[in-house]
Amino acid sequence: MTVPLPLGILISGSGSNLQAIIDAIGRQELAARIQVVVSNRADAYGLTRAQQHGIPTTVIDHKGFSSREAFEAALIQSLRTHQVELVVLAGFMRVLTPFFVRAFSQRIMNIHPALLPAFPGTHAQRQALQYGVRIAGATVHFVDEETDHGPIITQAAVPVYPDDTEETLSARILAQEHRIYPQAIQLFAEGRLEIRGRSVVVHNESRLPHVTLRVPESR
Ligand code: GRF
C-alpha cells in the first residue's frame, strides 16, 4: 500500500477543482491526502467544501501583510506545518513570487483555463472568445517563476461554438479541468513525471493513435 501524497491546496473562490480532487480521492482514483486548504479570502466557498469533508482550513488574507514576501512566508509556514509535499493551486488568484516558487521548487502545480501558451493571465476564456479560436481548453502545469508559464503536464481541448458566451465556454472548459487536475496529481503521486527543461516526460504514457479534434467537424 503506497503512502498517500500529502497535498496543500490554495484557493480563492468556489473551489470546484478542489471538490474534483476531494471526489477523486474518495473514489480511490487519486492516492493523495489533503493536509490543508489555504484561502486568501475568508468568503471562499471552497473553505466550506473542505470543512464538509473534515479537511483542515486556514485563511491567510494577503491584505494583512505589508509585502508579497511576508504573505508568502506565512503561506510557506502553514504548508510546512502541515507537511505538504505538493502544492496545488486551484483558482488561487494571487501571483506567486520566486521566493515562494523556490520554497517548493518543482512541487507546485497550477491549472489554467486555456491551452497555454495561448491566453495566459486573467479572463482566459474571454480572451479565447475575443480572439475567435475554434478550439480552447485547459492546461495543468508546474509553476515556475513566470506566470502561467512552467512545464506543461497535461492539456484537454474543447470546441468553441459561435454562440458561446464566456459562461458556456467556461463551463465546458471547467468540466475538463475537473478531469485532468486529479489525473495530473495522480501521475505526480506515482512518480511518473520528470521535468526536462520546458517539457514534462510522463513515464509509461499510453498513446492513442489518430485522435484529432476538428472544429467544425466535417461530415
Ligand atoms: C478555474 O477555471 C481555474 O482554471 C482558474 O480559476 C478557476 C477556479 O475555479 N485558475 P474553482 O475555484 O476551482 O471552481
Describe the structure in brief:
The chain is of the alpha/beta class and 219 residues long. The protein is 32% helix and 23% strand. The chain folds into two domains: 1-105, Formyl transferase, N-terminal domain (Rossmann fold); 112-214, Formyl transferase, N-terminal domain (Rossmann fold, 3-Layer(aba) Sandwich).
Break the fold down into its secondary structure elements and pairings.
Elements: E1 5-11, H1 16-26, E2 32-39, H2 45-52, E3 57-59, H3 68-81, E4 86-89, H4 98-103, E5 108-112, H5 124-131, E6 135-142, E7 152-159, H6 166-189, E8 193-196, E9 199-202
Parallel strand pairs: 1-2, 1-4, 2-3, 4-5
Antiparallel strand pairs: 5-6, 6-7, 8-9
5-O-phosphono-beta-D-ribofuranosylamine binds at residues 11, 13-17, 46, 90-91, 111-113, 174, 177.
Primary descriptors:
23% strand, binds 5-O-phosphono-beta-D-ribofuranosylamine, 2 domains, alpha/beta, 6 helices, 32% helix, 219 residues, Rossmann fold, 7-stranded mixed beta sheet, globular, two-stranded antiparallel sheet
Describe the structure.
The chain is an alpha/beta fold and 219 residues long. It is built from six helices and nine strands, in the order E-H-E-H-E-H-E-H-E-H-E-E-H-E-E. The model has no long low-confidence stretch (mean pLDDT 97). The structure holds 5-O-phosphono-beta-D-ribofuranosylamine. 5-O-phosphono-beta-D-ribofuranosylamine binds at residues 11, 13-17, 46, 90-91, 111-113, 174, 177.
